[in-house]
Amino acid sequence: MIKVEKLIITAAICGAEVTKEHNPAVPYTVEEIANEAYSAYMAGASIIHLHVREDNGTPTQKKERYEECMKAIREKCPDVIIQPSTGGSVGMTSDERLEPVELSPEMATLDCGTLNFGGDEIFVNTENMIKIFGKKMIENSVKPEVEVFDKSMIDTAIRLAKKGFIKEPMHFSLVMGVNGGISGELRDFIFMKESIPCGSTYSVAGIGKYEFTLATASIISGGHVRVGFEDNIYLSKGVLAKNNGELVEKVVRIAKELGRDIATPEEARQILGLK
Description:
By secondary structure, the protein is of the alpha/beta class. 36% of the residues lie in helices and 20% in strands. It is built from 9 helices and 14 strands. The strands form 4 sheets. The chain has an 8-stranded parallel sheet, sandwiched between helices. Helix 1 (30-43) packs parallel to helix 8. The longest helix has 14 residues, at 30-43. It is globular and about 45 Å long. The relative contact order is 0.18. The mean pLDDT is 97.
């Protein structure tokens, strides 16, 4: 019988696009971001996937703002894994997006393909950009979470890993249900999960209505889970979550019903090879 690892829960607490108009609890300020991280951490999250904002809600990749927010999070959650985004927001330059990596966090995201987000919004990640981001992470001893929005991005990551731009074993984030990317149907989850190389780990981020169905599928399948305001602001249909902790608590309840234990930050580090 295959031993199933404990469940790593990542909380994507604010993202770059969701606003207080969508849900008043979306954090902007350093204090709000730290409080939301704490709510998720106390509920069982071992990784905080971090975008940061200016106090007015404008997304930024400035390393000084990241440093300030990371310090505030660590004061409340001393052992949590903080995973800055290098995705930033649409229109940012590569140099802007890479600023948080200069802080040498334990992990950071690495997006492995370009995506049409809708309208005229294009999330650009050329092959050369991916190579530059991957090399920068290797230089700063940062483990990439390889973000993929469809099957072709998995193939790109495998190819670039063979060329030495991404360290193996890889940890994938299967982001599903985004405009322009693969859907969040269970059929597509199975296709994505079975496409990653042996020895890799993976987490699933279901967007919007797909959040908890895909979380359940990943728990059953031995994968890990990402939830949070970046992906979904509702606890259930029409019911806004009061904080990120409520979304994490729901995953914990599902996991317990299915007999899956929750990983602490230290256990998550061991599973992901961060130690």
